[in-house]
């Protein structure tokens, strides 16, 4: 864990334990530097992180103070312990049954996989799209075939450069969302019957893609704060013929875990030694709550082993279905897979997004979006302890828009899902995130929608329905 995380966790414990109380002033940045023997930048990052969690607030010319809020005494879940054996997947029908039931817009979307569409500059994007359609060069219908629009790939390469990674536009392939990118990557490095390593729990879309391609999976133990167990992964690579790893290193769905910098570097080197590519599903990286973005994995990948997948769907343009993969040494394979499947991603949309990245104020939008999500995370987390039963555990993320809960063991979240749906509330039950349908008493909740009274009422109802199962 990084030093500023250590300081933030130490300070949060003081607040939770009541040593620091609402209204108390925290040490100044200068004082905290002396106490912890760190730089002002490190202290500032720690305070920003605590502020994003709703624990402290900055007062002009006065410093940082503990906010008035409900005490949070909930422990976080432990490291998962999946069975160390491969699994032939049969999850899609089961997952579709759950997902089909949460599409009704009248339902409180705690189980949704998407943030509120009202968080995005859709009107502004629409103007860029209209302009791109009017000015479309007929030659673009040929020139912008895979790997995709040159200017959009250049803008993405510039964003990689700003994060410390040297990525050529030539290794970037534009796709129809991150889901297509994941499929193309899997097809580029694995064949039916091959084995890939995934997290436990894992995002269900990765499970569905693996099943569709006839792949087997082996689940790696995962901690809800720091991600995959390196020891377990190393042992798995030693014992099994793993063809690829499919991981979320930044604000994993569903747990919200964030792999620390040093462990991320260790991961890249471990996979290089075993010649196993990493398919990194990184759609939430821009949604960090602190002042510093997570380390870009491509920045510590000198071997071209990381196939970095992302999209604009979660942070800018839901519904536009534009994603990409920076595929490293596998770029040509991915590009050929793209040619032989969907051929091209909508060209006017690519052009519009390229223009928006150049002139649309993307960074300003992201800053606003991060602040809003951090506020909503604090509000939803604060509604859990007073409404949920003793024994509930909660993973607090540093980004993204999901909370991962472990409920008392007697709670069946599949039954709970049906009962909450009957009351107009959706949830995402734990078993949809497992190849073996584990996590039967776990729950993922979405805080990507506004902190409305409707949502607060839903949390009260959810707590009551949970209590009825005890």
From TrEMBL:
Give the family per the record: In the C-terminal section; belongs to the class-I pyridoxal-phosphate-dependent aminotransferase family.
Q: Which InterPro entries match?
A: Aminotransferase_I/II_large, HTH_trans_reg/aminotransferase, PyrdxlP-dep_Trfase, PyrdxlP-dep_Trfase_major, PyrdxlP-dep_Trfase_small, Tscrpt_reg_HTH_GntR, WH-like_DNA-bd_sf, WH_DNA-bd_sf
Write out the entry's keywords from A to Z: Aminotransferase, DNA-binding, Pyridoxal phosphate, Transcription, Transcription regulation, Transferase
Is Kinase among this UniProt entry's keywords? Answer: no
Provide the GO MF annotations for this entry.
DNA binding; DNA-binding transcription factor activity; pyridoxal phosphate binding; transaminase activity
* Residues annotated as domain HTH gntR-type: 1-69
Q: Which PROSITE patterns has this protein been placed in?
A: HTH_GNTR
State what protein this is by name: Transcriptional regulatory protein GntR
Recorded source organism is Thiobacillus denitrificans (strain ATCC 25259 / T1)
> Record's superkingdom?
Bacteria
């Amino acid at each position: 864990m990084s030093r500023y995380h250590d300081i933030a966790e130490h300070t949060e414990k003081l607040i939770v334990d009541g040593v620091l109380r609402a209204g108390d002033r925290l040490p100044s940045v200068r004082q905290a530097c002396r106490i912890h023997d760190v730089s002002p930048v490190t202290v500032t990052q720690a305070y920003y992180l605590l502020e994003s969690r709703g624990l402290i607030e900055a007062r002009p010319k006065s410093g940082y103070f503990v906010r008035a809020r409900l005490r949070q005494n909930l422990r976080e879940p432990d490291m998962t312990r999946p069975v160390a054996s491969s699994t032939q997947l049969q999850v899609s029908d089961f997952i579709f049954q759950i997902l089909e039931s949460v599409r009704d817009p009248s339902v409180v979307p705690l189980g949704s996989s998407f943030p509120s569409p009202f968080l995005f500059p859709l009107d502004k994007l629409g103007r860029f799209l209209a302009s791109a359609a009017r000015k479309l060069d007929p030659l673009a219908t040929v020139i912008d075939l895979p790997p995709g629009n040159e200017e959009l790939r250049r803008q993405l390469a510039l964003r990689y450069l700003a994060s410390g990674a040297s990525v050529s536009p030539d290794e970037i392939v534009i796709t129809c969302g991150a889901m297509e990118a994941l499929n193309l990557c899997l097809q580029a490095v694995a064949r039916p019957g091959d084995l890939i390593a995934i997290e436990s729990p894992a995002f269900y879309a990765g499970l569905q893609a693996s099943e569709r391609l006839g792949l087997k999976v082996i689940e790696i133990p995962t901690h809800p704060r720091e991600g995959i167990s390196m020891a377990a992964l190393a042992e798995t690579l030693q014992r099994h013929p793993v063809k690829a790893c499919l991981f979320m290193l930044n604000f994993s769905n569903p747990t919200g875990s964030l792999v620390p910098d040093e462990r991320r570097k260790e991961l890249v080197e471990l996979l290089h030694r075993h010649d196993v590519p990493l398919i990194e599903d990184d759609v939430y990286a821009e949604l960090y709550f602190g002042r510093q973005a997570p380390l870009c994995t491509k920045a510590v990948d000198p071997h071209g082993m990381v196939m970095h997948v992302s999209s604009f769907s979660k942070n800018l343009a839901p519904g536009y279905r534009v994603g990409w993969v920076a595929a490293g040494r596998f770029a040509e394979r991915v590009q050929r897979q793209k040619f032989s499947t969907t051929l091209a991603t909508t060209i006017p949309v690519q052009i519009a997004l390229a223009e928006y990245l150049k002139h649309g104020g993307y960074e300003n939008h992201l800053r606003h979006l991060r602040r809003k999500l951090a506020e909503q995370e604090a509000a939803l987390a604060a509604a859990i302890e007073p409404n949920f039963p003793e024994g509930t555990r909660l993973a607090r993320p540093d980004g993204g828009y999901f909370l991962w809960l472990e409920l008392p063991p007697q709670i069946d979240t599949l039954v709970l899902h049906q009962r909450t749906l009957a009351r107009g509330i959706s949830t995402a039950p734990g078993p949809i995130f497992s190849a073996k349908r584990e996590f039967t008493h776990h729950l993922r909740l979405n805080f990507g929608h506004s902190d409305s009274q409707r949502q607060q009422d839903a949390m009260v109802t959810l707590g009551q329905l949970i209590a009825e199962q005890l």
